[in-house]
Fold this protein.
Amino acid sequence: MNAQIIREIENEQIKTNVPEFQVGDTIRVYAKIKEGARERVQMFEGVVVRRTNGGISENVTVRRVAYGVGVEKTWPINSPNIDHIEVTRKGKVRRARLNYLRDRKGKAARIKEKI
């Protein structure tokens, strides 16, 4: 009984406008940032390194290299702080986790594009 009530509440909060994307794809995450009383939307573009869990607690980790330094951010997909997500490129990978990208630089860190 209680599990059913929790499941119903979770289903109400799951976002429906999330596009289909997988590990290896390049995405743009538009996140809402609060600075004092103001709120703005900041874009973060990078490769999806991993997707974890499912349902309401689903997370996505996105990696990019900015000024020669690797930056990874993890967001809950159903968070109200995420404005929207865009898929830029579809990647062709054979793994569920792309942790090996952390050790690669330059051309070695590229991912083939799905056609």
Q: What stands out?
A: The longest helix spans residues 2-13. DSSP finds one helix and five strands in the chain.
